[in-house]
Write a structure and sequence with these properties.
The complex is a heterodimer. Chain A is mainly α. Helix content of chain A is 76%, strand content 0%. In chain B, helix 1 runs parallel beside helix 3 and helix 3 runs antiparallel to helix 4 (132-165). Classes of the chains: A mainly alpha, B mainly alpha.
Chain lengths: 139, 205
């Protein structure tokens, strides 16, 4: 199997996801009582930076299967946006408001973006539709 | 539902296994989407009415399904799949994995959302509650499991199905992704034992 060089997309994606999960656990273990938002904000920013940096690194990969990436990512985004919306709904039902609601909503947004990119990358890295097309054209 | 044309086993012992043929199956089974939609409507209603029984039902039923599937897949089915012949493994995978694409996110969403609502209703998520430390422990276990499941297991599940849909699926890629799936499921299965310990402790105090 010829292996193309990729940035550590899965590892960085899991790091980003881990940072978000730590932030959500931190907030969830305090609310509805008062909770200092500093650590949760720091974790959210760190997670977002890793997500953006990861996508920027992937953008530099030559001949990456972007059509396949976006095809998978859009459907996965639909599914994970729905699961994030269900969790958000439970928070809203409990009258959560102010800073904790904003941070949790943004954290869920990063989660709903991060998971589809991980799924889409894993599919797209093994995509061979371009090679298949070239082989068909040559035949 | 799924028409599988598994390749015939190689006649010669020394010959490398032939690449599997293109298989016809749905990556996301459309019929299952209706069941998922019903489960999600039940969740929305349970959270909206905020009554103990529906919340308890969805949390216990969803959590039990999640735990049992992880334990069974990771500790029972995983090792069995690992010892199957490649054609048998491919046939099994094309029948099991599309269902897992729908079942796992559904039971996880049911369990987590109803569990949060239940904790809020019972007050177990308040820091003054004597069970609060156990609740936080459950958050941590679920958090670790979520990172593994969402970062490694789910992408491998989807990617192996895409690979099997190709005109010429690569057995090496399937092998690699299935290994990742089975190891991950095993770790999640072991971690589910921690969930069982925590949840039974909370329920009995």
């Amino acid at each position: 199997m010829t292996e193309r060089k990729y940035p550590p997309f899965t590892q960085l994606g899991m790091l980003s996801l881990g940072l978000i999960v730590v932030g959500v656990i931190y907030l969830s273990s305090h609310i509805p009582q008062h909770v200092p938002l500093g650590p949760a904000i720091a974790l959210l920013i760190a997670s977002s930076v890793v997500l953006i940096a990861n996508l920027a690194l992937l953008r530099r990969v030559p001949d990456f299967a972007w059509p396949r990436f976006f095809q998978v990512a859009k459907w996965a985004l639909l599914a994970y946006a729905f699961t994030a919306a269900m969790i958000e709904y439970a928070f809203l039902r409990d009258h959560l408001k102010g800073g904790p609601l904003v941070i949790l909503t943004l954290s869920l947004l990063v989660y709903a973006l991060q998971v589809p990119t991980l799924i889409a990358f894993t599919v797209a890295r093994y995509d061979t539709s371009r090679e298949d097309e070239l082989r068909r054209a040559a035949a | 539902m799924v028409e599988v044309a598994a390749p015939a086993p190689s006649r010669s012992e020394a010959a490398p296994p032939a690449p599997p043929e293109r298989l016809d199956f749905e990556i996301v089974p459309r019929a299952g989407l209706a069941i998922t939609a019903v489960a999600m409507v039940m969740l929305i209603v349970a959270i909206a009415v905020n009554k103990l029984w529906p919340l308890e039902f969805l949390h216990v039923a969803g959590g039990a399904a999640w735990t049992i599937i992880d334990l069974f897949l990771g500790l029972v089915l995983g090792p069995i799949i690992g010892r199957m012949s490649i054609p048998a493994r491919i046939e099994f995978t094309t029948r099991l994995m599309p269902k897992m694409v729908l079942i796992m996110p559904t039971v996880v969403t049911l369990t987590l959302a109803s569990g949060w609502q239940l904790a809020t209703k019972l007050g177990t998520n308040l820091t003054v509650n004597p069970n609060h430390s156990w609740i936080v422990a459950s958050f941590i276990v679920v958090g670790v499991m979520a990172v593994l499941a969402l970062g490694l297991l789910e992408p491998a599940n989807i990617a192996v199905l895409f690979e099997l849909k190709k005109r010429r699926p690569n057995p090496e890629v399937i092998e690699r992704l299935m290994k990742r799936f089975i190891y991950c499921a095993g770790i999640l299965g072991v971690m589910q034992i921690a969930t069982l310990v925590i949840m039974t402790k909370i329920a009995s105090s």
